[in-house]
Amino acid sequence: MAVAQKTGVAVGAHLVGGVKAGSAEEAMRTVAATLGRYVYAITDGETGSRSKWIGWQLNNLMGVDGIELSGTKSVFEQAAQEAAEIPKLTVDPSVTELPARIPGYADAAAASYEVFKRLRDEGVIPQGVKFQVSLPTPLAPVVAFVTEQDQARFYPIYAEAMKAEVDEIIAAIPAEDLLVQFDVAVEIGVLAGAQPAAEQLANKAFMIEQIRSMLSSVPAAVEHGVHLCYGDFGHTHFAVPQDLSLCVEFANALGDKLDFVHMPVDRQTGLNPAYHEPLGDLKINARLALGVVDYRGEEQRTRDLLAAAAASAGREFAVATECGMARIDEGDFDGPPLQRLLELHAAVAQPIR
Questions:
Q1: Which of 156, 176, 153, 180 lies closest to 168, judged by CA?
Q2: pLDDT computed for residue 1 by the predictor
Q3: How far apart are CA 328 and CA 320, in angstroms?
Q4: What phi and psi values does residue 19 have, to the nearest 5 degrees?
Q5: Which residue, 31, 39, 118, 301, is the most exposed by fewest CB within 10 angstroms?
Q6: Distance of CA 314 to the CA centre of its chain
Q7: What domains are there in the chain, each with its CATH number?
Q8: pLDDT digits over 175-222, tens only?
Q9: What is the DSSP code string of 126-188?
């Protein structure tokens, strides 16, 4: 693809998490070949059972005595899209804790880190690139899958299990090699009216405190931050964001806990400079990444989104897609090949090494 003049304000690339690949090694090799000079950290692509973000938690949780599949629940019925039916779990009151390593994130991270080290030793992954582990906030699987009457009771149980996963990840991966990202999506879906949440789980202040709690579970020596997301269910948002005001509000509330923050840029509304104006109210020192890389692979639209963002950002930012790249060919979505999207990151940003 033709590479035009670089835009000075865009430096580096941020990977949200998922990468369309057959394995962790394939994902890391593919990304490193094109974006090795651009990325701060590289993910394992969240391949296999993890390719549908939190979907794999259903089977993991159903392996626990007292947690059972109980029909389906409707989501998105209040948002600007059709209702969808997803599996629903009931949690018996006898469930007061989860067996160790049930969520599975620590095991996946430890296995992929061994691949990361080998590829770095081979020179495939450049020195200085960190290994990124992306995790959902505890609220996400609880609100997404657990029936409303059980959500508030089960939330602290799942939250403790996820903090234990974080502890295991930190024990397995040296701090200087690790970057931890928490994915904040279901919270925004609840606030958009797309997903029902019970009791305090529907409260914005509680959401912010639970994210702060998870960020605090990561030592200061380990780089950590958040990916803020309006959803990518069937490549459709919970609600189309009209601007970045909610994202900026979350970022400012989390600011002292953040080393980086990623914010989405809608491919339509993000063309309007007003979409990005709330960035003028961003009061954090954390590294910023903006999802200006068009998920459909259109270079001109990407450059237009980047220009609109640059006019208001007032700071250097990394480029990214709105959401992960694990499901770029899902359903009837006519998305571009992975390589096209990776090249598009490099076409519009300056390298960092």
A1: 180
A2: 39
A3: 14
A4: -140, 130
A5: 118
A6: 24
A7: 10-348 (3.20.20.210)
A8: 999 999 999 999 999 998 888 999 999 999 999 999 999 999 999 999
A9: PTTPEEEEEEE-THHHHHHHB-HHHHHHHHHHHHHHHHHHHHHHHHHS-GGGEEEEEEE-HHH
